[in-house]
Amino acid sequence: MKKEQDDLRAIREMMERSSKFLSLSGLSGIMAGVAALAGALFAHLYLLRDPSATGFSRFHEWMILLADAVVVLTLAVGSGLWFSWRKARRRGVRLLDRTTLRTLYNLALPLVVGGSFCVVMLLRGEVLLVIAGTLIFYGLALVNVSKYTYGEIHWLGITEIALGLAAAVVGGHGLVFWSLGFGVCHIVYGAIMYLKYDKQREEVDDGQPDR
User: Fold this and answer.
1) What's the pTM?
2) Nearest to residue 82, comparing CAs of 151, 31, 35, 37?
3) What percentage of the chain has pLDDT greater than the value 90?
4) 1 part of a folded domain
5) Based on the number of CB atoms within 10 Å of its own CB, is 115 exposed (0-12), middle (13-18) or buried (19 or more)?
C-alpha cells in the first residue's frame, strides 16, 4: 500500500514538473517586498523634501521617482531570478524550459498592456489612476499566471486588485497602497511560500547523503 502511494506521489510530482513552474522561491517574494518598502520610504522622504515643487522641479521629481522605481524593479527581478535558479538547482531541474517560457508569457502580457496603459494615463496627468492601475494590472497578471505555478499566487493577485480598487476610490494615499501591495503583501506571501514549500524541501535535500 505504501509503495502504491509513493508511486502515485512520484507520478503526480512528475506531471506537475512538466506542466507547472515550481521553481519560484518564497525568498524572492520576501526580497521583492523589502525592496518595495525601501523604495517607497525613499520616495516618501524625497517628496517631503519639497512638496510644492512645480514646473521643471516637478519634472525632475518624476525622473527621480522613476529611477527609484527602476532600481526597485531591478532588485526584485534580480533576486527572483537568483532564488529561482537556486531552487531549480536544488530540485535538479532546468530553470529555462517550455514551462518557464509559458509562465513568463502569461505573466508579461497583462504587465506590458497595463504598463503601457499607465504610461498613457501618466502623460495625461492622471497620477492617482496610475497608482491604482499598477496594482490592478499586476494583480490581474498574477491571477492569469497562477494556473501555471503555485495556486497561492491567485490569492495574492486578488489582494493586489482589491488594493488597487481601494486606491482608486480613496485617492491621496498612493505610497501607502503601494507599500501594502508591493511591500507587505509580498513579504507575507513569500514567508508563507517559503515555510510551506521551500524550507521543507531544503531540509529534505540537506538530509540526503552526498552522491
Assistant:
1) 0.76
2) 31
3) 18
4) no
5) middle
